């Protein structure tokens, strides 16, 4: 069949239109714009970490995700489920997207995850808590890329950035804080521990003289009162003492010879040893016990327990009626009928029950010379001699003999008055009455007493 020129032109036009249509179809194929965002759940970037994926890709029909380092490493969901990471580090998240037109797009992003922080450290004191205190730190915190800042309150060194710091020295007494701040670059945590430093070693002591030796006359027995600070062991030395040495904390020692004697204490702990020396002065024995300014009450004062009329040299006190016991060891009793002081005398404790007092349990017998001026016993002892008596020599030569006249009562006309006595155990003594004090039913005498010590 022959084609006309018109037919040819039409065929050409048709082909041109077909080519143009085909060209336009290819240009409108759907392209892919790959994109996504991720966010940290609870904004936590320290492992374990969970993230959400928001797919922002356009023009895709299928998706291939890869999650480097995650528990689940791949997904084909458009928006994958929550992705979990348990290890710290930098990891890639990749997305490959395709569509039915054969288009393909990909994108890769990096996620940086930090190590979890669980601070775990302990301290160990090397030796004792006495200053100076050396502390060893054991850091068990897990993680290799964490940053540390240690702070040692008043310690040496003061700070450290090492994971395992060197030993720290504390010298100042008191409580000190060890603080560590651990960071992973995203967040920081702190933990503290307290270290207590006990005081430095200070040796110190005093002593308490035995009740019967408080006049410091030989022999003198004392009990050491150890006031040392931060000491754990003791070594005592007693110059001319019995014993000469001791390692007790509170030893007892007796000094038998007069003079000034050294007491040396070496106090120690595991850090150091220090010494302290003190002296004690022991004076010669006078064999005389002196009591000054005693008050002895009249009968009414004694029986109402206002001012006692009994005296004990062993307990060194005036005793009222309600203080009398089986162990009072009363040496003398003062009998005075009233505040006029017209009838006064010293009586033996064994005679208290027959002279207006309640009988004294376990009473002993004491001899008296109330009236030296009338006793007819050949004994003379003046107030001047009493005051001058520094030891028991004047008493040694006196023979205390009771006579009827010597036992008679006296009034207040003679002052000062000296009364001599001898206890049942052989000790001789003298009383100097210095004053008769009128205070109604609570009247009393003022007196001094000097008596030989126990044999």
Properties at a glance:
4 helices, 5-stranded antiparallel sheet, 8% helix, 4 domains, 455 residues, Immunoglobulin-like, rod-shaped, 4-stranded antiparallel sheet, mainly beta
Question: Can you walk me through this structure?
Answer:
The protein has four domains: 36-113, Immunoglobulins (Immunoglobulin-like, Sandwich), CATH 2.60.40.10; 121-197, Immunoglobulins (Immunoglobulin-like); 205-282, Immunoglobulins (Immunoglobulin-like, Sandwich); 288-452, no CATH class. Strands 24-32-31-30-29 form a five-stranded antiparallel beta sheet. It has a four-stranded antiparallel beta sheet with strand order 4-3-6-7, with no helix packed on it. A four-stranded antiparallel beta sheet has the order 8-9-13-11, with no helix packed on it. The chain is mainly beta and 455 residues long. The longest helix is centred in the N-terminal third of the chain and has 23 residues, at 5-27. The protein has helices spanning 5-27, 299-303, 383-388, 393-396; strands spanning 36-40, 49-55, 62-67, 74-75, 83-85, 89-98, 104-113, 121-126, 133-139, 147-152, 155-156, 159-160, 168-170, 174-183, 188-197, 205-209, 220-226, 233-238, 241-242, 245-246, 252-255, 259-268, 273-282, 288-297, 310-312, 317-319, 332-336, 344-347, 367-369, 417-422, 428-437, 444-452. It has four helices and 32 strands. The chain is rod-shaped, with a radius of gyration of 54 Å.
